[in-house]
Amino acid sequence: LDFMAKPNDAKLGGLPETSPGGWKHLCVIVDEGTRVALAVPSESTSTRDVVQALLQWCACYGVPSTLQMDMAGAHQSRELAMFLPMMGVSLRPGVPRRPQSQGLTERLIRDIKSSIHTAQSDRRGYSTPWWAAALVAIMVHNHSTLYDTHLSPHELATGAPSPGLVSLPACGDDSDDESEVADAEGAANTWLKLHEWVGSAYALLTQ
User: Fold this and answer.
1) Which stretches of 16-102 are DSSP H helices?
2) Which residue has the higher pLDDT, 112 or 182?
3) What class has domain 2-165?
4) Residue 5 is inside which H or E element, if any?
5) What is the distance between the alpha carbons of residues 181 and 52, in angstroms, rounded to a whole number?
6) Which residue has better confidence, 120 or 38?
7) What end-to-end distance do the CA atoms of the chain give, in Å?
8) Count of beta carbons in the 10 Å neighbourhood of residue 136
9) Helix, coil or strand: residue 118
10) Is the dihedral of CA 2, 153, 100, 115 positive or negative?
11) 18 vs 153 pLDDT, higher one
12) Does the pTM of the predicted model rise above 0.85?
């Protein structure tokens, strides 16, 4: 488990961005075995936010046996020290000021940040809110096939076939140039529909 801070608005090249609930952080949890991930937007990095994220994880994937996280101030609170044993979770502290000890989560956070920057401007000049782009990145991660198992984290965690994120057109090896162009346009239109859906959801949440 680790937290990712909201990207700096100036670096994103846009106006200060608001989010539902005043979210400024993202609590990212990754399962070491299946690589399935969960991201919970939060206002801070307090013990309350850690507990809230863990409860959502437990509701989705069950209670973990071990939790690894760095030992920031909120992670050493008396409340968390009471909550984890109550849930039957043992704590495995990470090494302070050494992100390498949180390598799995840190790599995912790096990918999320890259997705946020990529989503700042599409071909029509529209941008996706940082938190929406981050959650879409988690969705893509959970439904992407892993190199070693040839299964997605979703499939490994749930045992159910992955429905996939979107239905992208397949490109055969013997396809001609015209079909390849059509496939590329179809893929772009599919992602454009996904962007519009996220934008509509954002509009509903902020009205």
Assistant:
1) 47-61, 78-87
2) 112
3) alpha beta
4) strand 2-5
5) 46
6) 38
7) 32
8) 20
9) helix
10) negative
11) 153
12) no
